Amino acid sequence: MRVLVHVALFIMALPLLTIAKSLTDLDILKDAPPLPTDERQREAFLKDLVVKKVVKRSAGCRNVFSNCACNYYKLKDHCDSKVDRLKNWMRRNCAATCGVCTADPEDFKCNNKYPDQTCDLFVTRGLLKKPRLQYFMACKCPKACGICNMALNSTAEVTPIPEEAFPQDECLKLHNEKRRLHGAADLTWCPKCADFADRVVKALHDANSPLKHTKSAYRTWRVNGRLVVHGENLMYKSPRVDCQTAVESWYEEKDIYNPRRPLVDIETSGHFTQMVWKDTWSVGCAQTQRYFACIYEQAGNWKSTYQFYRNVQA
């Protein structure tokens, strides 16, 4: 009986031993950043590394490992890690993804594997924020996540839209049309919010960064003598985003919102609830070619079931 148990355990461990031997032979994980912690992501990650192990670095400066693995590491900011050991590992093994060289266009293509619209929806719905889905997003939707080095894939220039060209009145109208459907009063335009939103989208644009909310402390300032926390809605869409696209996309989250359990789905319906939050009185928005942001005064989405019942008319 013991013999059978040992044989069974050996058979179960054989795939892992094979992977471990392959990785050890190449010494590829020495000085590498941490692997994904989620079991499924970790398994997919290791398989990608092993599959790619026979590919040699060429004069075209390709990734040594699969683009999926390198994309994941870039998503975790290891290309610009403050730890020299990790940064050097990335430059050696994920040079194309990190943009430290000119990639061979036949080998390195940073495109979404799903339709762009689907990937953009995934990002809008907050999948990028869920640790157990980050490897999936980095692998399947790198372009939508903002982790592509655009210089390697496109000659199109990404330029900020001039401030005077921003359709302020139209954007305010789009917001208020949606709010009226849910019993919320019209918003007014908030110039300071628009200035803050402008800084947000330009920072995202300059860093070619995945969507990442600013800390609430940075979105807190005095309004009429009292400190007010401001809400923030973000959107990324390639090749171009505008206010109508953003507002319509955020409003689609109403189909996800569950008024009986508002706090459960806040990560996937929070854009919608912020737009129609009754205690919000003004908004300011800004955009670059691919990034769009709106800052709301005051913030909605309080972590209180009572506040959702009071502020969101489904």
TrEMBL record:
Highest rank taxon of the organism: Eukaryota
Listed GO CC annotations: extracellular region
Ranges for domain SCP: 166-304
Domain ShKT: 60-102, 109-149
N-terminal signal peptide: 1-20
Keywords: Signal
PANTHER family: CYSTEINE-RICH SECRETORY PROTEIN-RELATED (PTHR10334)
Name the UniProt record assigns to this protein: GLIPR2 protein
Organism: Branchiostoma lanceolatum (Common lancelet)
Gene name of this polypeptide: GLIPR2
